[in-house]
Design a protein that fits this description.
Layout: H1 8-25, H2 32-50, H3 59-79, H4 85-109, H5 114-142, H6 155-175, H7 184-203, H8 211-231, H9 238-261, H10 266-271, H11 293-301, E1 305-310, H12 312-317, H13 320-332, E2 336-341, H14 351-358, E3 366-368, H15 369-372, E4 381-385, E5 415-420, E6 440-444, H16 447-460
Parallel strand pairs: 1-2, 1-4, 2-3, 4-5, 5-6
Length: 461
């Protein structure tokens, strides 16, 4: 058989450029789809060329695994709703972390040197934490676990003890000290059980409102674990190293930016148990005032400027097409329409941008928080469609769990209409002051249905 292994490294280098082009194109909604294609093509090429590795065996098993894994990923991505995308990202993050941990285990079971074994231990630790933590994040987002923080006395001490014992087990695997009368065969599974347990314990006390940050953080973890695993082989796998570093760096930057958007530190997100305690001695003044769609339509028809602040409720109702239709009607009446996009609106970064772009909303109609906040005071009507925590003025009140979180200052508009299914709280579990303001009216119902009613009412005016 002809040895073509000399092709592996040059093709790996080409795929690295493909990955970088893909990442660059993902930075803008208009090119994001092609960026996914570039990165996917790079991964496919890197996978295929790996089969040229000398002395590779078990081709049938690898082919079966690729067909099963690739088939599951393809059909899951085709069937998942946009509202389920955060859960799917969390689940796939977990699979990546689990795969990285499994690679580390194989390296540690072989004849790895001390240096290779040390890298495998770190990669295995990070990968296992990412796996179990991502599974908990998935269950919270899916509603299989309560989204509020799950805490117990002495939790941080227990967490740190589990992490310390996991690291100690990893060190024993490498050094195999004579004074410890236990073999590697015992320490290896113990190490992974403790690492998985730490990921689980670290994620349980994190509230649902912080899940977007958690998902991106575990995405970074998975990338770093894969990169470290690339060094754990006798001959480093440069495709794994470079791809892992790109994912790790992008995930870390995204995590920092999202934490900054929420005015929270990373340590506060992971160890603060945000939302576990409620504000005491505060009674919100006023009451929620319902309004009918016909009255909102009149209000909109006589407005000069309308700002739409979408949130997760719009995604759940799949109301983006109706929202676009409503905006087109308003613009046909020479009313200025803009969209206010909070960086963490929905449950993952860019969630609203993608949905609105899917409906045909021009990107130059979308404005981030810093751009749009100065305009609310001069706005006649703000339509809050399914957003909650990101428009809660409690973030301006000292003592509130949300205090300090940058929000969309929609309460400064002349009129605010909140489209909402009911009177429930947001994902953070905090009561929303906005709903009780004098200038706020509540239009109850499914967002697609209520926006549809607004469209029909406007057409009659």
């Amino acid at each position: 058989m002809i040895d073509l292994s000399w092709l592996i490294d040059p093709i790996y280098i080409v795929t690295v450029f493909f990955f970088i082009i893909g990442m660059h194109r993902m930075s803008h909604p208009l090119t994001a789809r092609s960026g996914i294609v570039w990165a996917g093509a790079a991964m496919l090429i890197a996978t295929l060329v790996t089969f040229l590795t000398p002395n590779l065996t078990n081709f049938a098993l690898m082919a079966i695994a690729i067909v099963i894994g690739g088939g599951f990923g393809y059909f899951a991505a085709k069937r998942v709703e946009m509202t389920g995308m955060p859960q799917m990202v969390a689940l796939f993050n977990g699979m990546g972390g689990g795969a990285a941990a499994a690679i580390s285990a194989i390296a540690l079971l072989g004849s790895a040197s001390a240096a290779e074994g040390s890298v495998a231990i770190i990669g295995g630790l990070i990968g296992a934490i990412s796996f179990s933590g991502s599974i908990i994040a998935f269950m919270k987002l899916q509603g299989w676990l309560r989204p509020r923080p799950i805490t117990f006395p002495g939790q941080q001490i227990v967490n740190m003890a589990v992490l310390v014992f996991a690291v100690f087990s990893g060190i024993c695997i490498i050094l195999q000290p004579a004074w410890v009368p236990v073999s590697v065969a015992v320490f290896l599974p113990l190490f992974f059980v403790l690492a998985l347990g730490f990921g689980l314990l670290m994620t349980l006390p994190i509230g649902g409102a912080d899940m977007p940050v958690v998902i991106s953080m575990y995405n970074a973890f998975t990338g770093l674990a894969v990169a470290l695993d690339g060094f754990s082989f006798a001959t480093p796998n440069y495709a794994m190293v470079v791809a892992g570093i790109i994912v790790g760096a992008a995930g870390s930057l995204l995590t920092l930016n999202m934490a900054k958007a929420m005015n929270r530190s990373i340590t506060n997100v992971f160890f603060g148990a945000f939302g576990a305690t409620e504000e005491s001695d505060v009674k919100i003044q006023g009451s929620m005032k319902a309004i009918e769609a016909d009255d909102v339509a009149v209000m909109l028809a006589y407005a000069d400027k309308v700002i739409i602040a979408p949130g997760y409720g719009m995604a759940v109702a799949q109301a983006q097409q109706k929202v676009k239709e409503l905006a087109d009607l308003l613009e046909a009446k020479n009313i200025t329409v803009k969209y206010a996009i909070h960086p963490v609106a929905g449950r993952m970064p860019g969630h609203m941008n993608v949905l609105l772009a899917e409906a045909g909303v021009s990107y130059d109609h979308l404005f981030d928080r810093d751009e749009i906040n100065p305009e609310f005071e001069s706005t006649d009507v703000v339509l809050v469609i399914g957003a909650n925590d990101t428009v809660n003025p409690a973030a301006h009140r000292e003592g509130s769990p949300l205090f300090g979180m940058p929000i969309l200052d929609v309460e400064q508009a002349k009129n605010v209409v909140v489209l909402k299914r009911g009177q429930g709280r947001g994902f953070a579990g905090i009561e929303n002051d906005l709903f009780y303001r004098d200038n706020t009216r509540m239009l109850y119902g499914d967002a697609q249905e209520t926006v549809g009613k607004l469209v029909q009412a406007l057409k009659k005016l």
